[in-house]
Each structure stands twice: as structure tokens, then as C-alpha cells.
Amino acid sequence: MIDVKKVSKKRIAFLGGGAYTIPSYRALLEGLGEYYDITVYFEFHYKVNSTSNLSFKIIPIVSKFRRVRELCFGMMVLKNLLFKRPNLIHTHSTFPSGLWGIVAGKILGIKVIVSLDAAEASGLPEIKFGDTLGKKRKFINKWVINQADEVIVLTEFLLNQVKNNLKIERSFHVIPRGVSTDKFKFYEKEISHPLKIINVAYLNPVKDQYTLLKCFAIISSQVDSILLHLGEDYHNGEIQQKVKQMGLENKVKFLGLIANDDLPQYYHDADILLHTSLFESQAVVVNEAMASGVLVCGTRVGLLADLADTCCVTVRPGDAEELAERVLKLINDREQVFMLRKKAYDWAVTHNLEWTIQQHKAVYESV
After folding, report:
1. Tens digit of pLDDT for each residue in 72-116?
2. Helix, strand, or coil here: 64?
3. Which domain CATH number covers 58?
4. Does 40 map to a domain?
5. Residue 252 main-chain phi, psi, to 5 deg
6. Are 102 and 229 found together in one domain?
7. E strand residue ranges, 148-307
8. 275/215 Cα distance (integer angstroms)
9. Within this chain, do residues 81 and 11 fall inside the same structural domain, yes or no?
């Protein structure tokens, strides 16, 4: 028997399987899959969950050469979209997905939405991070953003980066990626002793865990504290070595990559999420922590910049001393702790996963 509901769904071609590997993005896509017939096109070889309500197209080759993968991805997209024409193309970032999405859209006369989710408009030369450090990539990103029918950005912080660094003036939709407040549940609690601090981020220069350790060293010198780090190591063991040099081995624990489904328990046990990145397009861990009743303190980037001093405590990137001072002051102010937690939770509930799904659905329908 034909599933009439499935047949009647509008078809969406989502270019950028890398988004599907991100838990919060996967939840968004599968939520949208309740309303649309979505096919996710992967720009690399990947084994997907066959129980998903989405369809998948994956490049048929495994190659260590990035250019070969990008070309294969583009050919796969053009071929499939030609024979199974979608109602809309939605791309994850600007390259290669955004570039091929715009090309396909122009050839086939299909509207294109581009989501900006990374450092498309940013550049930090001191750590060789960001697309604007390369002239070619900067040009491509600017062209893709200008050619798209609609553009979605995660935060006002990211929007300002796009406008200031790429000199683009056009309309944008600011839609942070929300989290499930059924999964990340709020717990009211007093500040514990010892103070439990977590950092949920892969080890990498852009996450600036050197500032994290400097800040924690100051805090732990004044109050009994422990720091748990959750995330993969892309820093070649340098941060662990720094911990030994600072004599913090008994206070800092590295737990490695933690499954997303296991994260709620760590938030439940934590007092503070300490997030010290040099750059973030959003930082979904901030949403997760706020939804869970964890105080968020960190650097003024991504969502922390948007919610600065309303739902979280923030300082400029790299300022470990100021951040430590503000954390120490905060934990001794019970009224301020309660107010921050409440405002943060209210924001997380208002901008939860279902809100994000409906916001994207509204953009889809508008084009």
C-alpha cells in the first residue's frame, strides 16, 4: 500500500552529510524529516543509521585526496538532482556543499538555502584558523552567501562576523540550534563542595584550553575545585602535559569523547560549564548546560556573546584572570546564581529543539 503522507511530502535535498554527524544537527534534520522527504548528500564516505527517517546519498569512493572527494560529491549531486528534482536545496556551510548547491540551483532553477555553521567569515592567523585566511575560500564564501535565496546563521555573533569581515549586506535568519529539554533536564541545586567544573569541547587551539587551565588554576587556588574535560584530543597531548607542568594532575581529569546520550549525567553533576574558546559560531554545549541548570561562564564568542551577562558570565577571549575573578564572585552570590540559572533555563526552553525545527520549517515554506 502506498504511504500517501510520504508521497505528498515536499522533497528537500540537504547537501552536507558532515552536519548529520553532529548530534544536535542530526536531531534537527530528523525532526524536519517528519514534515519533508529529506535526502542527505554526504561529501565523504560514511555508514549511516538505517533506522533514520531520512534518505542518504553517499559518494561511492573512498579517497584520501580532498579534491577528488569534492569533485565526486559535486557530480553525484548534479546527477541525482537532475533525475529526482527536489523542491528545495538546503546546504550545510559554503564549501563544498554550498558551492555545489548554488551551481545545481542555478542549472535546475531550484531555490537554495545556505546555513552558516562554522568559521566561514572568520580568521585567526595566530592559530591558522578560519576561512577568511585564504583568498580563494573567502571569495567562494562571499559568492555563495550572496547568491543564496535565503541564509541562516546560528547567532548574532556569527551574523556580525559575516557583515563585518565579508562586507555583506543582505537579509539573514538568525536561528540557534536548540536542544531537547526532555533529554537535557533542569536540576535546581546548591553550589557543591568541591566546586565541580566541566569543559565540553575537543582539545584544539581554537578552544583555547590554555586559558581554561589558567583560569581554573586561579579558582582552585582559592576554593576546592575539580575540572573534568569531555572531548577528543586534537592537540597531541599538549594540554595534558600543561596540566602536569602546572601541578594540577590531582584536580583535572580527561575523560575523552563521551557519547551525547551520556552527557546529561555529567551536566547534572556539574556546577559550572567553563568555556574559553577563541571562536564559536554557536557552541551547542552552552544550550545543553543552560537547559540542565549548569552555570555557564566563558569567553564572549558565539552564543555566549549573544547572551552575555543575561544568561551567562562572559569576558573577552584569553582573559583568564578576569574570568576567574568573576567565577569566584559569582559562586558566593546565591541570588545571582539563582537568577542566572533561571534566565538561562527560560532561554533554553524557549529556543529548544522543537522551536528550531519550526523556525527552519518557516524558512522552507517561505521559499
Report:
1. 999 999 999 999 999 999 999 999 999 999 999 999 999 999 999
2. coil
3. 3.40.50.2000
4. yes
5. -120, 130
6. no
7. 150-153, 173-174, 195-200, 225-230, 252-254, 272-275, 295-299
8. 11
9. yes
